[in-house]
Design brief:
heterodimer; A: 353 residues; mainly alpha; globular; B: 309 residues; transmembrane (chain B)
């Protein structure tokens, strides 16, 4: 009984865990290489832990960083399961933020219990439409989703800036941001002096829903079948093109809702974007660390949220640039990308013994 | 400014904007012709832009910086090659990893070298050199503002075209990209060809990065590549995986850039944020076949396993 569940579980988290540990080791080595003494490098890691999990309030703040990553990580996972690499979650997140803000001020006057969900739905719809374009182009014309995703990310970025800066209906006169959403659309902090809102629960709920969709419904079965082997799925009577589009819509809706939650919890408006938000791009890493499983994604997002939050403390109290954390994230992905390397060494070890 | 001077200005700024793209797009062309997708071009450009500035900072020579950029580009592309050819990693994920790694590594090293986040101090850059052309009216207005990078890029386009389409090596590259199994059968070393092409793409994209930093602004700051690696990727697709085609696409994208600057200096009230979207939308349309069918090499993105039958 225990073996039935625990063994596959350990097997599935084995590689990500090793990747994470190796990456932290590599980060440490790198600090030494650059000339930091061991004591300072150790202090940096201690500050990283303290700065991300040091107190209840800090943990809350870590979760603030994790919340959007849960959404984008889920978005990436939903697409991965169908064999799609939705690197466009970034653009879908941006569009979702924008449509949520739109609903947030245009529907002013609604009571909160209608307005809050209306914004969430608007965000999800915005992201879904943006992603559907990619899915349809892939399904009908065979265009590679990665290239179109990247292109649409830029279009989303510039479109969001254009609308929020130049169109009087959306923008605040002579300001570099949109109007604020109405108070009835906001999610409020759970604790005093905290920015953590019910957004974290919405994110976790979405993880559960995605789990149910993927593993307990026909739609999820079909999406996974297409992801495993499109030719076999087609032969088995599953429409590959239909599922590609549906998976992208599902993925885009998750990313877009992430944008909405971020707007409703933290920003309350869309600011001029001087660069990408990076939530969509970090979502790639989160999905990979989480092995494209909704619950794994939640842990991956907490890890990346903790790294992001703790990096400030690391810079502040150990004097190590916070960019070292980005380095660790990069190395984690390199290792996960090169999963084969682990398998290779494992096989070798097996051959020897 | 009279009409001809304006035209000269447009041409020279189109050339300048297109140049970094041309290097990276040529790199992409080599890599993908041999069957390895390389969306790490952006990261390689970042690395090249940074390394050239760092080397120029320590040695005072921006030309050594260019060599450094080429070397660092080859190194990081070598990592991509190693992961995707030797270990058959997902090439797209490996590319994403390279982009992430380069961004963080350079951001970190700026702190280490210059003791400040975000940007380097100014360094020696590569100036435009005077040529006999400078005194000719009109032509002179074009050549005065452009650096050797521009000329070298054009030469590289010719060389790349020649290598890919007129030499036995190029034939092998294309064979490996279209049908690795068949190439293997006739005795072509698929892995070796792919390694060479991916590393070559790193060399080119690295120089492309240098053309931005020591070639334009004489310094490095975070985010200065601003997605040019991805636009180069777009140019490569739009140019149908051919050096000359890629160059033409880079000119088109460079031209939208130039027009935008041109309109701004003239105080024309057209919105530039719509103009900057053009390359991306054009690429989507090109891919969708509205501008003409573009077909990738058949084995692009597919790892090759010699032992698999």
């Amino acid at each position: 009984m225990a073996d039935k569940y625990i063994k596959p579980f350990l097997k599935s988290i084995y590689l990500p865990v090793i990747s994470i540990l190796v990456s932290f080791g590599a980060g440490f080595l790198f600090m030494l290489l650059i000339g930091y003494p061991v004591s300072q490098a150790a202090k940096a890691y201690m500050a990283l832990v303290k700065g991300s999990f040091g107190s209840l309030k800090i943990i809350g703040e870590t979760l603030v960083y994790s919340t959007p990553l849960i959404f984008t990580g889920l978005a990436l996972s939903a697409a991965f399961r169908c064999g799609l690499f939705n690197i466009g979650a970034e653009g879908q997140f941006i569009i979702g933020s924008f449509t949520a803000v739109w609903a947030g001020f245009a529907l002013e006057g609604l009571p909160w219990f209608l307005h809050v969900p209306a914004c969430l739905i608007a965000g999800a719809a915005g992201g879904a439409i943006w992603a559907a374009v990619i899915g349809i182009l892939k399904a009908k014309l065979g265009c590679h989703e990665v290239i179109n995703s990247i292109m649409l990310n830029y279009v989303a970025w510039y479109l969001s800036n254009f609308l929020s800066l130049k169109i009087p209906y959306f923008n605040m006169p002579s300001k570099a941001f949109t109007k604020d959403i109405a108070d009835t659309a906001k999610l409020y902090p759970l604790f005093q002096n905290s920015r953590l809102t019910a957004g974290i629960f919405i994110a976790i709920l979405c993880a559960v829903i995605l789990y149910i969709i993927l593993w307990k419904t026909v739609l999820g079965y079909e999406i996974r079948a297409v992801g495993n082997n499109p030719a076999a799925a087609e032969y088995g009577g599953i429409s590959v093109s239909r599922n590609l589009v549906l998976a992208m819509i599902l993925s885009g809706a998750l990313a877009g809702m992430g944008g909405a939650v971020q707007v409703q919890s933290v920003n309350f408006r869309v600011n001029q974007l001087l660069s990408f938000t990076n939530y969509g791009l970090d979502g790639v890493a989160v999905a990979l660390v989480g092995k494209q499983h909704p619950f794994g994604v939640v842990f991956g997002a907490i890890l990346f949220g903790a790294l992001a939050k703790g990096s400030f403390q690391m810079q502040f109290s150990a004097g190590v640039p916070k960019e070292v954390v980005g380095l660790i994230q990069g190395i984690i992905i390199v290792f996960i990308a090169a999963e084969q390397i682990f398998l290779f060494f494992n096989k070798r070890k097996g051959a020897v013994s | 400014m009279d009409f001809l001077t304006n035209i000269a200005f447009l041409i020279s700024s189109t050339l300048r904007s297109a140049t970094p793209l041309i290097y990276a797009a040529l790199g992409g062309t080599f890599s993908e012709s041999s069957g390895v997708t390389n969306i790490g071009l952006e990261g390689i450009m970042i690395t090249g832009a940074f390394t050239s500035v760092a080397v120029s900072h320590y040695t005072g020579s921006p030309w050594l910086g260019v060599l450094g950029a080429a070397a660092s580009g080859m190194l990081i592309a070598g990592l991509h090659a190693f992961l995707s050819i030797r270990y058959k990693a997902d090439q797209v994920i490996s590319g994403v990893a390279i982009n992430l790694l380069s961004g963080s590594l350079t951001a970190f090293l700026i702190n280490v070298i210059w003791g400040q986040p975000g940007q380097s101090n100014p360094v020696n850059g590569i100036a435009s050199f005077p040529t006999f052309l400078d005194n000719i009216p009109f032509i002179g207005n074009i050549t005065k503002g452009i650096t050797p990078f521009v000329y070298i890029a054009l030469i590289f386009v010719y060389i790349s075209h020649f290598v890919l389409f007129k030499t036995p090596f190029g034939l092998r590259v294309r064979a490996v990209g279209e049908h690795p199994r068949a190439a293997d059968t006739v005795g072509i070393n698929v892995y070796k060809i792919r390694y060479i092409c991916v590393i070559l793409s790193g060399l080119l994209a690295g120089i492309g990065g240098a053309s931005l930093s020591v070639g334009m602004v004489n310094g490095y700051r975070d985010g200065m590549t601003a997605g040019r690696g991805f636009i180069a990727l777009a140019a490569m697709i739009f140019g149908k995986w051919k050096p000359v085609g890629a160059m033409m696409a880079c000119f088109l994208f460079g031209f939208t850039d130039a027009v935008q600057v041109f309109l701004q200096t003239w105080g024309v009230k057209i919105d530039t944020s719509l103009l900057v979207m053009t390359p991306y939308i054009v690429t989507i349309l090109a891919l969708a076949g509205f501008i003409g069918k573009s077909t990738a090499p058949a084995a692009d993105g597919v790892p090759y396993d010699k032992d698999e039958k």
